Amino acid sequence: GKTWNAYTYSGDLVFVFEIKNRLDVIGAMLSWEKTMPRAFEPLLDKIDLVAPLFEDSIIKNVDARIAHLSQAKNTSLGYSVVLGKYLVIATSESSLGVMMERVIAGPINQ
Length: 110
Hints:
The chain is of the alpha+beta class. Helices cover about 25% and strands about 35% of the residues. The protein has helices at about 20-30, 35-40, 95-105; strands at about 5-10, 10-20, 55-60, 60-70, 75-80, 85-90. It has a 6-stranded antiparallel sheet with strand order 1-2-6-5-4-3, with helices on both faces. The two termini are about 15 Å apart.
């Protein structure tokens, strides 16, 4: 079956999901972007932007999507499909990058 894990890193939450179909997941995540920040609001420090927008980003040479949720840009939500096999969602851009690097480096389910 599908596996997933939740981690904390420097006070941020990071979720890693094993996925089957990269394109289906990317499509679903793009659709979820409109409401995703509100879904995570109870887990985040502060959202002060009315309609945060996700933007393309490159982290560790991998495509990612990041939404800055506050004026100061210190609260964000991001995700990426890594190695075509894992969906990584994190409550900060830096934690997303750290977990992406760990996923790329090798097995994380040890």
